[in-house]
Design brief:
mainly alpha, 69 residues
Length: 69
């Protein structure tokens, strides 16, 4: 499996986890600036997808850290 496919699989799994286990966060995924392209035909690169994956991880981490306090 190539690197992009692994990242896409991880994005899908993480998104499903957020939807199932943290539904309060799911509504924020559509509002994530990473998902809003600034061009009519954006280039979907490995870096773009990795950045998006990292943003999903940060959203989840921030939520988990906030609930521990």
């Amino acid at each position: 499996m190539d690197k992009l496919q692994r990242i896409l699989t991880e994005i899908t799994q993480l998104t499903n986890t957020i939807k199932a286990d943290h539904p309060q966060l799911y509504k924020f995924l559509d509002e994530d600036p990473v998902t809003i392209p600034t061009k009519d035909h954006p280039d979907i690169t490995l870096k773009v997808m990795k950045d998006y994956l990292d943003s999903l991880k940060q959203i989840l981490k921030h939520s988990l850290d906030s609930t521990k306090k």
